[in-house]
Design goal:
single chain, mainly alpha, 87% helix
Length: 362
C-alpha cells in the first residue's frame, strides 16, 4: 500500500487551506453559482443542439442557449404578469370607489365599526388611538424614506447576484463539460462512480424543478376553478397568485391558506354564501391540499428513486440552510448522500460482511 510522502501531506494541507479561503471569499455568491450550475446542466440539451447547428461554435452556441432560456422564461412570465395586472386593476376599480364612499359617509363607516366585536372596549381608547394614528402619519415620510432606501439596497444586491448568475451560467454552458471533467479528475473516484454522482445530480435537479412547476400550476388551476364556480371575482388573478405560492414546497401551502384560502372562505360566509363556503373549504381540504403531500413525493421520488422521507427532510433542511433556494439544493444533497452511501456499501461490502460473520461466530 502506497504511503503519503511528507511533501504530499504538506501540499494536501496547503490545498485544503487555500481552498477554504477561496470558498469563504466567494460565499456571498455561492447560491448564485450553484443555481447557475443547476440551470446550465438543464440547458445542456439545448446547447448540444445549437452546437450541431452552428458547427461547434462554443461561444455562439452558449449565447443562443442563454437567449433561448431567457425567452422560454420571460414570455410566459410576461403573459402571466399581464393577466395578473389586468385582474389587479379590476380589483382596484372595485375597492377604490368603496373606500371613497366610506370616507364620504363617516356615519355609515362608524355604524359598521359598531358591529365589530369589542367595539365598546375600543371606544374607551379612541382618543389614544387617534393620537397614535397621528404620530404614525407624521412619521410616514421617514418610514417611506427608510423603506425606499432598504428597497434600493436590496434591488442593487439582487441585480449584482443576477449578473453573477447570468455571467457564471454563460461560461458553465460554454465550458461546463471541460470544467466538469477537470474537477472529476481530481477526485479519487473511478470514472463510473464520478459519472454516477453526476447523473444523480442531473436527475434530481430535473425532477425537483418539474415537480415544483407542475404541482404549482395544477394546484393553482384547481383552486382558481373552485373560486370561479363559487362566484368569487377575479379567479384568474387569485389562481395565478396561488400557482406561484404553491410552487414552493413546505412554505407554499401554509401561506396560501393564510393569505388566500381562509380570507376567501370568510368572504363567502360574510356575504351569506354558506353553501359555496363549505364547498370551497371541502374541495381545498380534500382535493387540492393533499396533492402537495401525496403527488410531490411520488412524482419526485419516482424520477430520483428517493424515499419520501429523504425528499421531505432534504427540502425542509435545505430551506433552513440555504433559504428559498434550498428547495432545489436540499433534495440534490439528499440524493448525493444516498448515492455516496451506496458507493460505500459496494466498495466495503466484503469487509463489512466479514465483520458480520466474525460477530456471528462469537
Amino acid at each position: 500500500m502506497n504511503r503519503f510522502k511528507p511533501d504530499q501531506i504538506i501540499l494536501l494541507l496547503v490545498v485544503l487551506f487555500i481552498s477554504a479561503i477561496f470558498l469563504a471569499m466567494i460565499r456571498y455568491f455561492f447560491m448564485a453559482i450553484v443555481m447557475a450550475a443547476i440551470f446550465s446542466a438543464l440547458a445542456s440539451p439545448i446547447n448540444n443542439r445549437f452546437m450541431k447547428w452552428l458547427r461547434g461554435s462554443k461561444s455562439l452556441s452558449a449565447a443562443m442557449t442563454m437567449f433561448t432560456m431567457l425567452v422560454m422564461l420571460i414570455v410566459p412570465l410576461a403573459l402571466l404578469i399581464g393577466v395578473v395586472l389586468q385582474q389587479a386593476v379590476k380589483i382596484s376599480g372595485v375597492a377604490v370607489p368603496w373606500v371613497r364612499q366610506q370616507l364620504q359617509d363617516p356615519a355609515a363607516l362608524d355604524l359598521q365599526l359598531r358591529s365589530v366585536p369589542f367595539y365598546r372596549e375600543l371606544e374607551l381608547y379612541r382618543e389614544e388611538i387617534l393620537r397614535k394614528a397621528g404620530d404614525v402619519a407624521g412619521k410616514t415620510g421617514s418610514i417611506l424614506f427608510d423603506t425606499l432606501s432598504s428597497f434600493t439596497f436590496t434591488a442593487i444586491n439582487d441585480l449584482l447576484l443576477l449578473f453573477v448568475f447570468l455571467y457564471t451560467m454563460f461560461f458553465l454552458i460554454r465550458d461546463g463539460r471541460q470544467l466538469l471533467e477537470t474537477g472529476l479528475s481530481y477526485l479519487p473516484l473511478s470514472v463510473a462512480d464520478s459519472h454516477r454522482l453526476l447523473d444523480k445530480f442531473l436527475s434530481v435537479t430535473r425532477a425537483t424543478l418539474k415537480g415544483c412547476l407542475a404541482l404549482g400550476v395544477l394546484q393553482g388551476t384547481l383552486s382558481g376553478l373552485a373560486f370561479h364556480f363559487a362566484g368569487i371575482d377575479n379567479a384568474i388573478f387569485w389562481g395565478a397568485v396561488m400557482s406561484v405560492l404553491l410552487m414552493f414546497p413546505i412554505l407554499g401551502p401554509p401561506l396560501t391558506w393564510i393569505f388566500v384560502w381562509v380570507p376567501a372562505i370568510i368572504y363567502l360566509v360574510v356575504t351569506g354564501q354558506h353553501l359555496q363556503a363549505v364547498s370551497v373549504f371541502l374541495f381545498l381540504s380534500i382535493v387540492v391540499h393533499p396533492i402537495d403531500n401525496i403527488v410531490r413525493p411520488i412524482l419526485v421520488g419516482r424520477d430520483t428513486q428517493l424515499h419520501e422521507l429523504l425528499i421531505f427532510f432534504g427540502t425542509l433542511g435545505g430551506i433552513g440552510m440555504f433559504g428559498i433556494f434550498g428547495i432545489f439544493v436540499g433534495p440534490i444533497i439528499s440524493a448525493l448522500f444516498m448515492t455516496v452511501w451506496e458507493m460505500y456499501e459496494e466498495s466495503f461490502g466484503g469487509y463489512l460482511a466479514g465483520i458480520k460473520e466474525g460477530r456471528s461466530d462469537v
